[in-house]
Design goal:
Layout lengths: L13 H15 L11 E2 L13 E2 L16 H8 L7 E3 L13 E4 L2 E8 L2 E8 H5 L10 E4 L2 E3 L4 E7 L6 E9 L4 E4 L22 H4 E2 L5 E2 L4 E2 L2 E2 L1 E2 L3 H5 L3 H11 L3 H10 L12 H12 L8
Parallel strand pairs: 2-15
Antiparallel strand pairs: 1-2, 3-8, 4-5, 5-6, 6-7, 8-9, 9-10, 10-11, 12-16, 13-14
Pfam families: Cytochrome_C554
Organism: marine metagenome
Keywords: Membrane, Signal, Transmembrane, Transmembrane helix
Length: about 300
């Protein structure tokens, strides 16, 4: 196989197919209106691989974390050094802490081998039965997929694979434990209700809600695909302070006024941003609790 186009092999796609069934259910119940055409790609990924990743929102509500730096340099510096910023990232040599050096692990009858191609991170998925029946112990119809996103940078990193339906992302079955420097089964690393039926993880309807800023899952019912958008990957300034485009426009406009007039306008006009520290204890707790008050969405 060459380039970014994966070869589809039915015998090694059982868990991807299972996730696609979940996606089809989400489309069927029409969780959202059909979205507009996909927007700007995040990062430097090139087509067609870029189409498998979340798109950047272009509705003018969010200003982006870089817009905060001029007026809030210290706060921006503190946030930039935090694990909030690195909660969700595009995969690159700068963001991946896991070993992609040819290690192989087995899951539900499949063998996953992690490896690199230059600055790209890939997994080869083989049917163990097919490999055992082959003279060279390799599945002749192995599936090769390039990983696009990583979540986490503190205790562990979990990875995501393209789900073949727009920019649907599904959970890679192994996660990297940073302190232990080893791979471990992903299903054994998250605390959940023991009675919850485990299913394939759909990033677009679950993790996007708290691990990005300005999330829009955007399942397209008519096209049977996801066209998810975010303002920022990771948890950036606007995740807690709300959309800041109006605030940035206000500050830039007032900065051009004479000092006396500017001070009068600052006192008279709404700040056009949420400051959690100024909220009462219940509402300020809700800002954090919207994500830190739960661990898992059992129902999307």
């Amino acid at each position: 196989m060459h380039g970014d186009d994966p070869k589809i092999h039915p015998s090694t796609l059982r868990w991807i197919v299972a996730l696609s069934v979940v996606a089809a259910v989400l489309f069927a119940i029409n969780l959202t209106a059909p979205p507009e055409p996909p927007g700007q790609a995040l990062g430097q990924a090139q087509p067609p691989f870029a189409a498998t990743l979340p798109f950047r929102r272009d509705d003018g509500e969010y200003a982006g974390s870089d817009s905060c730096r001029d007026c809030h340099a210290n706060e921006h510096k503190s946030w930039h050094a935090s694990y909030h910023r690195t909660m969700t990232q595009l995969i690159s040599p700068e963001t991946v802490r896991a070993a992609f050096d040819g290690q192989a692990h087995e899951f539900q009858g499949e063998r996953f081998t992690m490896h690199r191609r230059g600055d790209e991170y890939w997994t080869s998925i083989e049917s163990i039965d097919a490999a055992n029946a082959s003279p060279d112990s390799r599945d002749p119809e192995a599936l090769h997929l390039r990983l696009g996103m990583v979540t986490g940078s503190h205790h562990m990193q979990v990875f995501w694979l393209p789900g073949m339906k727009g920019n649907l992302q599904i959970g890679f079955p192994f996660a990297w434990l940073i302190d232990d420097q080893r791979w471990a089964p992903r299903s054994s690393l998250f605390i959940r209700n023991p009675h919850t039926v485990l299913s394939k993880e759909n990033w677009n309807m679950n993790c996007i809600r708290c691990h990005t800023t300005g999330p829009q899952p955007r399942p397209n019912q008519a096209a049977q695909r996801f066209e998810s958008r975010v303002a920022d990957l990771g948890i950036s300034c606007e995740a807690c302070h709300g959309p800041a485009n109006r605030h940035v426009d206000r500050q830039q406009r007032l900065a051009r006024l004479p000092e006396a007039e500017r001070q009068q306008a600052l006192d008279a006009e709404p700040l056009a941003i949420v400051q959690p520290a100024d909220l009462d204890h219940a509402r300020s707790s809700q800002v954090c609790g919207s994500c830190h008050g739960m661990k898992w969405f059992d129902k999307s």
